[in-house]
Design brief:
Elements lengths: L1 H27 L10 H32 L1 H27 L4 H24 L5 H27 L2 H11 L1 H19 L4 H26 L15 H8 L1 H38 L5 H35 L1 H20 L4 H25 L6 H32 L5 H33 L1
Length: about 450
Amino acid sequence: MASHATQLTKSVAVSVQGRTAGALARVLRIFGPVEQAEAGTVVLLLLNLFVLLFTYYLLKTLREPLILATGGAEMKSYAAAFQAAGLVAFVPAYGWISSRVDRGRLIVAMVLFFAATVEIFSLASLARVPYLGFAFFVWLGIFSNAAIALFWSYASDLHGPESGERLFPVIAVGAAAGSPVGSKVAERLFAGGMSPDEMMHVGALLLVVQLALYRIVERRTRGTRRVERAPLASGPGGFGLVLRSPYLRLVAVLLILLNLVNTTGEYILGRSVVSAARLAAAADPALDVASYIGAFYGRYYFWVNIASVVLQALLVSRIVKRLGLAGAIFALPIVAFGAYALVAAGAGLAAIRWAKGAENAVDYSAMNTGKQLLWLPTAPEEKYEAKQVIDSFFVRAGDLLAAGVVFAGTTFLGAGIAGFAFLNLVLVVLWVTTAWALLGRYRSLCVTCR
């Protein structure tokens, strides 16, 4: 009798779990083709990424008053340069740890390290430590690159090319949604009078929640992982892996070109906004230029975030399903070419705003998904170590190159907005050429890894 009751209880539990998974799968299919058996893990990964991006944008909003109030805009510019140097030191340390612990412990160590560091910054804020804003700015740049790269390394560890191409666009909805929510919550907390050190406690708590989500996924996928949970093999390190692999070199070049084009485009938009603000102030001396610029960017970022969420939720999965990786990585350069052709032809601020907004929305959705799909056919060492190098050092290298381009263009060449737009058109052609070569190698790797 007791045995029959136990069996009945188990049958009811399995039935309830099946109905729950079925309901989750039906909801997720709004965003992409998720199978019932995958639904629970996909939801957990989506929530994990949502919490991570929520945390990052909460702390990113917090960093602005910290650095601007203590060091000004000049200090902020110097801190951006120091981020690259910090990443050069961080990446080898990360590689050393990853070769000595399994991936489960690597994740625990990294997330707890970042949570503890946030708490240290909170104590430093209470103690009014000098140059805190500068140090926090540098740290946050390292955190954003390392933590997001670690998440996608883990996600690509769980999935092969077939399931990854289906599920990554759905999982990435978490990033698209977490970013604006984090910014808005930070705004409300500031408006409610919460201090920076108190907001740091919130950030640390959110990282603990993210770690709990990682552990739940670990339990769900134990025994079904595509790779063994073991320390990564000792080897040439992240930089060595990138330099010796033709595929990874192309990934690095692609991201450098992407960031070079995007950052130069941000300069074009910023220069256009400043010119428009000065013209408006000349016509109306009572106009506050800073308020004009702030209002412009407030509207601009709002609509970019809305567009990126819509694209990620409703279109990206369908693009990848129909066109594969090609649809994800070619969408952005096509949009960028059209945007900068419009600017080069002499478009005004209104057109530049919408063109650049479209570029950023596609970057934050389709291209962001495409960048993660590129790692599906790579080896475990490449997923964890080389990805950290490319997503941190090489991405920042693109930003630094863009700063050099702007300096040279304005100081020595006297280039105007149209000149920078024309340069971006040339760079987009190089970008497309690199993407085409990369796509061929990706397909070859996918054939061998299946």
